[in-house]
From TrEMBL:
Residues making up the signal peptide according to the UniProt record: none
Keywords (A to Z) from UniProt: Heme, Iron, Metal-binding, Monooxygenase, Oxidoreductase
The protein's required cofactors: heme
EC number of this enzyme: 1.14.19.41
Organism: [Candida] anglica
Class of this enzyme: oxidoreductase
InterPro entries for the chain: Cyt_P450 (IPR001128), Cyt_P450_CS (IPR017972), Cyt_P450_E_grp-IV (IPR002403), Cyt_P450_sf (IPR036396)
PROSITE patterns, per the entry: CYTOCHROME_P450
Name of the protein in question: sterol 22-desaturase
Keyword Chaperone: no
Keyword Cytoplasm belongs to the record: no
Length: 512
């Protein structure tokens, strides 16, 4: 007698079969199975997130993506990404990155605080501290920012000029004293660090502390590169970066304490910290009904002040060093530009080269200022600004950036748009004499736009206009050109690949 029997597939039966299958697998087979699942998931998620935008069809290097290439970023590789389409993408480890290269898309992202917030890089929150004001969002960020606006007003900028001029003079003497050509990438980093720290902290910071911060600051930059290992491992780049950032903020915290004591005792502001604390004291004493002033009534702690001052240094140091390198390379290679700057400097000083700088005088340096602006356009220090997507972001009608992705508006293409800046690959300060609205606003993304536009843009233009004028008036520059002089090195910001080899000689400022 024969019969067919059908056994129902119950939950317990399926569990048993799965267990039998698992037990039959060797460790090698198990590892291979898990690897296939993980790699498949990684590729599938990449395809889903990529959608229709430009980017590699598949992740050639599973999981890590182009991580190894990004350890040595190259400007040419970035540019090929921008040229591949208005939106493109890469995926590195767990992070999906969307790159926007078109002007209007970049502006949209920079202005969309509802969908995005600054992220710098994954470890930035740990290094800059999660309590730092740059990571605030919405109204909290707006209110904090309004409290800082007074630090870069015209009145405040005038306060900072004497200390800046003092350190410009000190370093000019140093540069002229060199008896042979030098690489000026490290020299300009030290100069700009000293000027920034004295402007921010006045005499509360010592020369030894300035040297310590200047010598070590490059480790913070290395820790905050666009692509870095997201976990802080002892003795890694990120570990050193965090340690030095913490030590630097402790110095700033002590400086804030000394500044508070000085201002409370009736001292007159001479640096950014002084001005901030003076504004707080003034608002507290007047108890004004002005909403902007009411924000300053809140007593910012020494720790909050130290964190904000550190972000000023972080925002300015590498970008300023980059600008200095390109600015002085460009004018050294263009005697006609240098001659026009020197002529203007004597004119605004009424032929008295020893005349001290003032904001009124700097505002008269129109051509010198145009040289600085054209350098910022021609070689913008900051190429891209990373943001993180807070919620699904409809960037275009056909593409939505997924929540958690990094989205990066790119600034370089807008500044080299031939329709707005004719012959964009040529250096032409004269183009700013009749600047259009697009040149000045729509395409002028050097300092960003929207709620996170750079607070110190007027400070930067003031500092470099005065520095360029003073240095060209009092020195002759010789650029020792190498095959790498015009090649672009990317290290957070951009620099000449040969680190700029310059020779300085003292010059009679009244010489024709």
């Amino acid at each position: 007698m024969s019969f067919n029997s059908t056994i129902p597939l119950t939950e317990s039966t399926l569990s048993g079969k799965a267990l039998d299958f698992y037990q039959d697998l060797s460790w090698l087979q198990l590892i291979a199975t898990i690897t296939v699942i993980v790699l498949s998931y990684d590729q599938i998620m990449y395809q889903i997130r990529k959608g229709s935008i430009a980017g590699p069809r598949f992740k050639v290097w599973p999981i890590i993506g182009p991580f190894l290439e990004s350890l040595d970023p190259k400007f040419e590789e970035y540019k090929s990404k921008w040229d591949s389409g208005p939106l493109s993408c890469v995926s590195i480890f767990h992070k999906f990155v969307v790159i926007a290269s078109e002007r209007d898309l970049a502006r949209k992202i920079l202005a969309s605080s509802k969908y995005v917030k600054p992220c710098v890089v994954d470890v930035a929150v740990k290094i800059l501290r999660p309590t730092n004001w740059v990571f605030l969002d919405g109204k909290a960020h707006t209110d904090y920012r309004r409290a800082l606006n007074g630090l870069f007003s015209q009145k405040a900028l005038e306060i900072y000029i004497p200390v800046q001029e003092k350190y410009m003079d000190l370093y000019l003497e140093k540069f002229i004293s060199f008896d042979s050509p030098q690489k000026f990438f490290p020299e300009f980093r030290e100069l700009l660090c000293a000027i920034s720290l004295r402007t921010f902290c006045g005499d509360y910071i010592t020369e030894e502390q300035i040297k310590l911060i200047a010598d070590n600051y490059f480790r913070i930059t290395a820790a905050l590169e666009l692509v870095n290992f997201p976990i802080i491992i002892p003795y890694s780049k990120t570990w050193y970066g965090k340690k030095i950032a913490d030590d630097t903020m402790k110095i700033f915290e002590a400086c804030a304490g000394m500044s508070k004591k000085f201002i409370e005792e009736g001292g007159k502001p001479a640096c950014v910290m002084d001005e901030w604390i003076h504004l707080m004291k003034d608002a507290r004493e007047k108890q004004t009904d002005d909403p902007d002033m009411k924000l300053l009534v809140r007593e910012f702690s020494n720790r909050e002040i130290s964190e904000a001052i550190f972000t000023f240094l972080f925002a300015s140091q590498d970008a300023s060093s980059s600008l200095a390198c390109w600015l002085f390379q460009i004018v050294a290679d263009r005697p006609d530009v240098a001659a026009k700057v020197r002529e203007e400097q004597l004119r605004v000083r009424n032929q008295d080269p020893s005349k001290k700088l003032s904001l009124e005088m700097i505002n008269e340096m129109t051509y010198t200022n145009n040289v600085v602006k054209e350098t910022l356009r021609y070689r913008p220090p900051v190429l891209m600004v990373p943001y993180v997507v807070k919620k699904n972001f409809p960037v275009t009608d056909t593409y939505t950036a997924p929540k958690g992705a990094m989205i990066i508006p790119t600034l370089y293409p807008a500044l080299h748009d031939p329709e707005v800046y004719p012959d964009p690959e040529s250096f032409k300060p004269e183009r700013w004499e009749n600047a259009t609205t697009q040149m000045l606003n729509r395409n002028w993304l050097v300092f960003g736009t929207g709620p996170h536009v750079c607070l110190g843009k007027n400070y930067v233009l003031m500092t470099f206009t005065s520095m360029l004028g003073k240095y060209l008036m009092n020195s002759e520059l010789t650029h020792h050109v190498t095959p790498l002089s015009e090649e672009i090195k990317v290290f957070a910001t951009i620099f000449p690949k040969d680190d700029l080899i310059l020779e300085w000689k003292k010059r009679d400022p009244l010489k024709n």
